[in-house]
């Protein structure tokens, strides 16, 4: 049994939780420890529920044990996620065996010119290449386009870190704004006899949705000695510096961004009770208690949430919540005593709730009065991420001597494209 597993077992038995002496180094080990922690959690939670049934209240020691195990499960899940993220990051740049040999001659030339610009500030190579391509990305216009391999890699890493980008539809555009017509209601149809007249059907109502792209930037700094070191993979270094900060900013904006100089998050749209839903609003299901769950049948809210979606969207549904809210839901059982929350079937797969996957987003709010802490929807249909093609870098060796700054920018937008495909839980009385 591993150190962390012994710690969980000790907590379940009443012992004081010891310090974690080792962090699992493999995905398999981390997943095994997470599953052992879940078994200990179920044992203690079952004891808590039995005490409530017999004495109408749970023992303080039992509640404390369960809370500690619950927190420990969250920490183990973080370790597992970090290991999976590390595993999902392929190395950028030239791989052993000649990765550049797989690239076209133009791509190799661009890569070499970009490397010279980043390391030594030599602009001539990129100027000539982008002039040939009739590109507007000259130094005077604010930077140079990074090689396609770096651009693709930044996008891929962000999709691993940011759950909303991975769940949503992503469109790449070459203009500043994407305008999309959307039919809020379908075409009118009807049955007629073979020789009967065909009356004209009604004209569908179209809504034009606009998704402007906003500028997202990061400014990593490097010493000249680092840039002079030929052993350092500069492309990998730049991508590694900007991908996490881009992902954090994007993930927050796609969920709760206000639309001012950033994408508009789906929680920023007006919400109405789902029974009174109309286009342009997000439908919500109230828990029946302000700032919490109902004392009896709390899972009824989740059932209502699931079936608030139409069947076509429901079959592609995903829950979205943060770890703390997920920790509360782990305690829920159905009428037969079965847990509604199920751990991942294997490392790298999501946990599930009532048969639907759960995506964790720390940007989702904690439970509070009138909070929208749980979302459920077909995010592929409901939310649109708009990327403007190209990531640009401007080298600045002057502003922060002796460091060289790399002003890295990309343009991204986002917003709800189908208001009936996403529903939320509102922690309110009505």
For the structure shown, list the relevant keywords.
430 residues; Major capsid protein gp5 fold; 8-stranded mixed β-sheet; 7-stranded mixed β-sheet; 13 helices; 17 strands
CATH architectural arrangement of the largest domain: 2-Layer Sandwich
In which order are the strands of the major sheet placed?
7-8-17-13-9-12-11-10
Biggest sheet details: 8 strands, mixed
- The CATH homologous superfamily of the largest domain is named Major capsid protein gp5
| Shape designation | flat
Distance between the termini: 48 Å
Class computed from helices, strands and strand pairing: alpha+beta
CATH class of the largest domain: Alpha Beta
Short overview:
This protein is of the alpha+beta class and 430 residues long. The protein is built from 13 helices and 17 strands. It has helices at 3-13, 27-55, 60-87, 105-120, 124-132, 148-161, 163-167, 224-228, 234-256, 299-308, 311-314, 323-329, 379-382; strands at 144-145, 169-173, 177-183, 206-212, 214-218, 221-223, 271-273, 282-286, 318-321, 341-342, 352-353, 356-360, 374-377, 383-388, 392-396, 403-416, 422-426.
């Amino acid at each position: 049994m591993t150190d962390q597993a012994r710690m969980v077992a000790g907590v379940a038995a009443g012992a004081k939780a010891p310090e974690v002496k080792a962090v699992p180094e493999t995905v398999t080990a981390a997943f095994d420890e997470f599953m052992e922690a879940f078994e200990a959690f179920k044992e203690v939670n079952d004891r808590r529920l039995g005490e409530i049934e017999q004495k109408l209240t749970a023992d303080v020691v039992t509640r404390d044990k369960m809370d500690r195990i619950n927190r420990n499960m969250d920490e183990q899940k973080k370790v597992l996620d970090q290991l999976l993220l590390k595993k999902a990051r392929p190395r950028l740049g030239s791989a052993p065996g000649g990765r550049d040999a797989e690239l076209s001659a133009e791509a190799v030339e661009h890569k070499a010119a970009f490397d010279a610009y980043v390391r030594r500030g030599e602009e001539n190579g990129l100027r000539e290449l982008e002039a040939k391509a009739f590109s507007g990305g000259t130094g005077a216009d604010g930077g140079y386009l990074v090689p396609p391999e770096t651009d693709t890699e930044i996008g891929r890493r962000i999709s691993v870190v940011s759950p909303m980008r991975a769940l949503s539809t992503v469109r790449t555009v070459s203009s500043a704004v994407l305008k999309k017509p959307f039919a809020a209601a379908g075409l009118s149809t009807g049955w007629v006899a073979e020789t009967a007249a065909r009356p004209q059907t009604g004209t569908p109502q179209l809504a034009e949705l606009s998704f402007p792209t906003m500028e997202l930037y990061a400014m990593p700094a490097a010493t000249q000695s680092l840039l002079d070191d030929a052993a350092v993979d500069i492309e990998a270094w730049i991508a590694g510096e900007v991908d996490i900060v881009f992902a954090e900013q994007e993930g927050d904006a796609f969920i709760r961004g206000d639309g001012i100089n950033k994408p508009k998050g789906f929680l920023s749209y007006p919400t109405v009770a789902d029974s009174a839903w109309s286009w342009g609003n997000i439908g919500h299901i109230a828990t029946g208690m302000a700032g919490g769950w109902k004392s009896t049948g709390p899972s009824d809210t989740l059932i209502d949430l699931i079936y608030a979606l139409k069947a076509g969207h429901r079959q592609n549904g995903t829950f979205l919540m943060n770890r703390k809210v997920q920790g509360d839901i782990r305690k829920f059982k159905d009428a037969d005593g079965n847990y509604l929350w199920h751990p991942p079937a294997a490392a790298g797969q999501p946990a599930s709730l009532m048969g639907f996957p759960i995506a964790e987003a720390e940007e989702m709010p904690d439970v509070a009065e009138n909070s929208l802490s749980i979302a459920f929807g077909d995010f592929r249909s409901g939310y649109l991420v708009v990327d403007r093609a190209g990531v640009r870098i401007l080298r600045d060796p002057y502003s922060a001597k002796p460091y060289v700054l790399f002003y890295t920018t990309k343009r991204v937008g986002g917003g709800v494209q189908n208001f009936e495909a996403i529903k939320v839980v509102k922690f309110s009385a009505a």
